[in-house]
Amino acid sequence: MKKFLSFLKSGLFSAILAILVMVSGYFFLKEYGFCLAQEERLETLNVRLGISKQQLQETTRKQRIFSRVQAFLNHANALGLQEKKWATYNVNIEEPVTFDAFEQILEQCNQTPLFYFNPISLQITTAIDSEQNKSPNKPSQSGLPEEKDGDILINLKGSFIVRDKL
Questions:
Q1: Per-residue pLDDT tens for 8-29?
Q2: Taking the CB of the first residue and of the last residue of the chain, which one, N or C, has fewer CB atoms within 10 A?
Q3: What secondary structure letter does DSSP report for 118?
Q4: CB 77 within 8 A of CB 69
Q5: What is the rounded distance in angstroms from the CA atom of residue 61 to the CA atom of residue 59?
Q6: Boundaries of domain holding 102
Q7: What's the structural domain count of the chain?
Q8: Are residues 48 and 99 in the same domain?
Q9: Please, what is the angle between helix 11-78 and helix 2-9, to 10°?
């Protein structure tokens, strides 16, 4: 036992312990660095996973939209709503008309399954307004406007979109 105590007192034991502490410290730091690298890699992979999930959700959403659009286009084609099956006729009416004729024109502008009216502009003036705009300095002899073809002056622009026969 004295030999053991003397061995402990000698510098050799201290040197062995110092070397053992340094070797264990080296391996600890090496493993600690590896652990930090793995944590950083794990964090990077989690970020990439989150981005991938977002891209997958976005792709799924776009596929749903695309399938709905495709279904709508197929339904529209089945109903015959193709551009080549419709004709466009431009309308430009600028003339005086009677109230009855104007009412008939407005009724024709109603939309039906076979044609649609796409209005651009509609201006309505009375015969009195149009005469005053033409000759503001010249009063009428009788104070009333002269008899014309119509009661009002209309300016109607637009186009009829007519479906060809099925």
A1: 667 777 788 889 999 999 999 9
A2: N
A3: E
A4: no
A5: 5
A6: 83-163
A7: 2
A8: no
A9: 70
Would the pLDDT of 144 be above 50? no
pLDDT band at 115 (very low <50, low <70, confident <90, very high): confident
Nearest-angstrom CA–CA distance, 33 and 84: 71
Taking the C-alpha atoms of residue 48 and residue 41, their distance in angstroms, rounded to an integer, is 10
Distance CA(137)–CA(37), nearest Å, equals: 95
- Asked if 104 and 57 sit in the same domain, the reply is no
The rounded radius of gyration (Å) of the Cα atoms in the chain is: 46
Choosing from 53, 75, 97, the residue where a domain stops is: 75
pLDDT for 133: 60
**Would you tell me how many other CB atoms lie within 10 Å of the CB of residue 97?**
20
pLDDT reported for residue 40:
96
Structure-token pair, residue 123: 């201006």
Name 82's Cβ contacts closer than 8 Å, sequence gap at least 6.
Answer: 76
pLDDT score recorded for residue 4: 65
pTM, to two decimals: 0.43
